[in-house]
Design a protein that fits this description.
The chain is an alpha+beta fold. Helix content is 28%, strand content 25%. The strands form five sheets. The chain has a four-stranded antiparallel sheet, with no helix packed on it. Strands 8, 12, 15 and 16 form a four-stranded mixed sheet that branches.
């Protein structure tokens, strides 16, 4: 197959770079959604642990198991935050006349530390001043770009300083080269801080610190939760709960839930996939269905509002439909009918 024109290396590189950037943005969005869901799960687990702890005691095996699960989930969330930051990191452009060193500096809790100085030193511990230095930003991100590598013919070593005091010294050397990019993630301990030139020079930085690209804030989710009961001690378990607009256009994407043994249900919707529901606002309705998909109850109109939690409790009469019941002190309709038959006999 003959091509009408040939693509040069620059065009190919640009197209590949655009594809990678788009993929990273999509990955960051998906990770952010997973983070929102995991945070909601963590809140639910912590509330349940508090409830069981008050009821059974903190040493009870169920409470201990739930506490361990909460700790594991916290570690997962911490790692997830780091992955989101990595995915949102703008990959620097490196030309044939520069060397780029970039990455993150984090404390022992893996939180980014701002205001620190990142520079490179030679094997004698002398700052390679002509390569400049960088300052860490809000999430610990730094980027150093050097264009004068004439004296950097030997390995250099990364150091992190706080107002001149050494916090970290890398033992693995780097070899700066034109057209090359190096990435490092550094973990240290300490508090934050004032970024100043490394000791031994009062000169301004060779290359000013570069701000990482601004990322739009992620809107919090919309949450709808509630309970289906008779208004008292009888709870309706195993019922299907759905949310849909009048036309049913968003029914599949909004999904369904099943009430638990206490008749409870919960929906959590991240904002990004449902922009069409927010502006202009769309009337949504919560439906309670029986096992045969027959409607039992429909709520007044709801509206998708990021960051808002709406409580929609549904009250129904026992015996008006066939459904599993979880009871407190009241009897189920099935039990009432059996007692009446025995009395007749």
């Amino acid at each position: 197959m003959r091509l009408d024109r040939e693509l040069n290396a620059g065009e190919v590189s640009q197209q590949v770079g655009n594809s990678i950037t788009a993929a990273d943005q999509q990955r960051a969005m998906e990770l952010e959604r997973l983070k929102i869901i995991s945070e909601a799960k963590a809140g639910s687990m912590e509330r349940e642990a508090a409830r069981l702890g008050a009821k059974l005691g903190l040493e009870h095996p169920r409470v201990q198991a739930l506490t361990d699960a909460i700790e594991i989930n916290r570690g997962f969330l911490r790692d997830l935050v780091i992955e989101v930051e990595r995915a949102r990191t703008d990959i620097p452009t490196v030309d044939e006349k520069s060397w780029v060193l970039h990455g993150y500096v984090r404390d022992q809790d893996l939180k980014g530390v701002a205001g620190l100085t990142v520079a490179v030193y030679d094997e004698k511990g002398v700052w390679v001043e002509r390569l400049g230095f960088a300052c860490t930003k809000e999430k610990g991100y730094f980027r150093l770009t050097a264009t004068d590598l004439a004296i950097a013919d030997r390995p250099v070593f990364i150091r992190v300083l706080n107002n001149g005091a050494l916090l970290y010294a890398d033992k693995s050397g780097l070899k700066p080269e034109m057209g090359k990019m190096d990435y490092r993630e550094i973990t240290l301990s300490g508090e934050a801080h004032v970024c100043t030139p490394p000791p031994g020079s009062s000169a301004p930085p060779v290359n000013p610190p570069i701000e990482p690209p601004e990322t739009p804030p992620v809107k919090p989710p919309w949450t709808v939760r509630g309970q289906v009961s008779d208004g008292g001690s009888v709870f309706f378990a195993g019922l299907k709960v759905t949310i849909a607009d009048k036309a049913g256009k968003f029914a599949a994407s909004l999904g369904a839930r099943t009430t638990d043994e206490k008749g409870k249900y919960e929906f959590i919707f991240p904002s990004e996939p449902f922009g069409d529901l927010i502006n202009p606002p769309v009337d949504l309705f919560l439906h309670v269905l029986d096992a045969n998909e027959n409607p039992l109850s429909t709520s007044p109109a709801l509206h998708f509002e990021p960051g808002k939690t709406q409580i929609v409790n549904v009250t129904m009469t026992p015996g008006s439909f066939e459904a599993p019941l979880k009871e407190g002190t009241a009897k189920t309709p099935t039990a009432d009918k059996s007692a009446q038959k025995r009395k007749t006999k």
